[in-house]
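Protein folding task:
====================
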Amino acid sequence: MVPFFLFRRHLKKAPKLGDGSFYETLKHTGSWLLIISVVHVLLMMKLEGMSAGDAVWLTWTTLLTVGYGDISAATTEGRIATIVLLYLGGIFVLANLAGAFIEWRGDRVHRMNKGHWSWNMQDHILIINTPSSGGVSYFVRLIEQLRKNEKFSDAPIQLLTRQFPEGLPEQLRKLKVVHYTGYPDNDEVLTAVSVKDAAAIIILSKDETLASSDAMTFDILDRLKESGVTEIPIITECVDDSNRQRFSRAGATVTVRPIRAYPEVIVRSLVAPGSEKILENLFKHEGDHQLRFDIEVQSVTWGDVVCALMVKGFGTAMAYVGKDNEPVCNADPARVIDAKAILIMVRENRIPSQADIVATLKTIQPAVVTDTNS
């Protein structure tokens, strides 16, 4: 089943039934009921000598099959008019309307489940494309991480994908996710998913292993710009690093590598733009990257270690490994450490040696420093 709060919120977006929408059928039926009721009221006033109020009361209690019986037609002509206009005409029209409504509801649920419903959403997170493999598990992790953030805990989430033409898997429906089945290189489809009203847009690479996927991402960015999407955060995945600047010029707010095992990178880029760069650096051995120095350090605060290394320009101490072999990240700067190794993010153009780190740490008093590699 599709989340009820989205049913209620987007009820006005009716799907087509035959040659017209349900609301066109409702308008047409309402016109006929008005004509029938007005004619019947006038006939009751003329044939039965009723007042306008009594004639209206008789007409609508009969149409709605309430039938109180306190007022009724007495003349043969009046009864024939009631039979023809209300019993045969009015009640038939109402029955036809009820049938159309039931058909519309069934068709609506079918379209919602199959991804053919325009939700007319606002302030939603729109995720375009699906990973070429493991899409369900990736989306589950990504959405669970989004839900853990207070800003997006209740945000509507919509997927634009061709991956689920028979409906979303149960795991995603439980997370209050809806989808639209279509290609993102179609302007009508982008309109159907309300790109201009989104709180954020995430564009995933069609295939995280093929640089040619960047062409589709660039096309989507261009279409979003033409649609008037300018102030909305747009997170894009880029396979070929040489395309990053092009994505930025095309309107991407943040560009990241497609790291399928860690969808948290996408979440961090939304919650704290810029932090995704730090996370990306953890997955490569170029530019800024992590190194481990097996050096025992005791009787010194973590803050002093971090400051000493930064002053020397040897990088940023990210964590230390305790005697129990467990890394300690983001430690309290006032904490006196007992470490067997230090993990440092270094710059590729200035990688310190083991001796450099040992010499720097020995300048901190009263630190006890031992080079375990010597």
Notes: The first helix runs from residue 4 to 9.
